[in-house]
Predict the structure.
Amino acid sequence: MEYFLQQAINGLTLGAVYGLIAIGYTMVYGIIGMINFAHGEVYMIGSFIAVILLALLGAWGFPPSLAILLIVLLAAIPFTSAFGWAIERVAYRPLRGSFRLAPLISAIGMSIFLQNLVQFLQGARNKPVPTALPGGFTLMEAASGFTVQVRWLQIVVVAMTVILMVGLTLLIQRTSFGRAQRACEQDMKMAMLLGIDVNATIARTFVLGAALAGIAGVMVAYYYNVVHFYDGFLAGLKAFTAAVLGGIGSVPGAMLGGLLIGLIEALWSAYFSIEYKDVAVFSVLVLVLIFRPTGILGRPEIEKV
Amino acid sequence: MLEVRGLQARYGAIEALRGIDLDVKAGEIVTLIGANGAGKSTLLMTLCGQPRASGGSVRFEGREITRLPTFEIMRLGIAQSPEGRRVFPRMTVLENLKLGAIVADPAHYAADLDRVLTLFPRLAERRDQRGGTLSGGEQQMLAIGRALMSRPRLLLLDEPSLGLAPLLVKQIFATVREINENEGVTVFLVEQNAFHALRLAHRGYVMVNGRITLSGPGSELLANPEVRSAYLEGA
Ligand SMILES: Nc1ncnc2c1ncn2[C@@H]1O[C@H](COP(=O)(O)OP(=O)(O)OP(=O)(O)O)[C@@H](O)[C@H]1O
Ligand SMILES: [Mg+2]
């Protein structure tokens, strides 16, 4: 029981991260009906920006702390947002209206380019990240002596995710940007007829997804204390699985899917085999695609052309 | 207000508009009638840049708008209630109306909402219902109300009477007249319901196969034997 609880806590943290990345996939799919295959790289770039900023701040004499963590988090947002914007401008917008596979191919190209860029600038080896917020507390102790630990960082990750989710929900439900975005999702031509700048709305959607993925990247860099230029691929694929599981196009679905994938991964590693945890996750993707392509919260596709 | 000259539009190989000349003056209600597939909806959409004109020109209040992107055209004071209504199905009535006002001055929002809900009390009752669950007539009201929320000077209406009960048709046409007379909104109205439309409009145009074949005051077209036999038999 204690062991299960510990794994659930770890899975929840991981799931929050997958959920944040998954939102970018799901929002972009919602508005243009396509998967942003370069999205995982934005997450990876977020991690590297954390490394660079931490090194700079360290050199200026600021030791890692919660305040520094939050500053790095905020400072990374403009950078990852810029990458999100660039992906839309370079890989998607020029190809809108061309055959459906074209932007996917260009996005994969973009993804490889970004990986190589980071590899070139930062090297191919694992980069260590200094511990920002060490320690935690003991939630409970079993008779066997097994203790359930919660790290402070896990609390930061989950709390930050909850705050971002609430903020995002308000943004989508209550603001005129949110309404414009939903209008574009439901009927792009009608959105134009109301005077909505559809290109700008699509670009903002990419930027918003990238900002969230970047934040996830920063938090993961702190959480695992190591980053690598290839990290975006696997995390991106898992977050994509989360988005599909939750129902692609649905923002609450992405978060739910993320949590489930995080839990599946943590529990599978704990009870079955850690080597096959990625296989377990991708089996979920295959099963969902076969048996319930609309996911848990997705709507059946009506007329997306 | 609106000057259309030699306007052409095509869908791939299909020529939908083959050189349209047409004027709408400020304060007028002008109607366009024609058979199915004549190109009426295409004309309304081409005025808004969807599809883009393949030839000719459109001027609005003296300004050339033929090549402007759609969203910029719509920000000049033109609004359209398009064919098929295109109400946002998964948004509430109120959200649909808010979207209509998305490029309008927020200072006018409360007054404009009030006006639309007064014109269509039905929408006030259904304010929190999703667009997709409204009846056809309610959707029609919503589409017109949404178009009015931007305070357009030129209102483009595509078959507002389609699929509505006779009483509701009367009501919608009365509303159009009200908007025109009381608020000075210029209306360009596409209709199948030629009898009502020609009675309502100051002037009318008849479109056949992407061309304008007849034009004149509404009463004159109503009396025209060609129009009578083609569009008013049995009406
Ligand atoms: N998206 C499209 N793609 C290809 N052809 C189209 C498209 N829309 C319209 N057309 C064609 O263009 C012509 C004009 O269509 P349009 O919808 O403008 O007619 P309409 O006068 O509005 O007819 P109705 O009274 O039935 O609404 C028709 O032949 C139609 O088949
Ligand atoms: Mg039509």
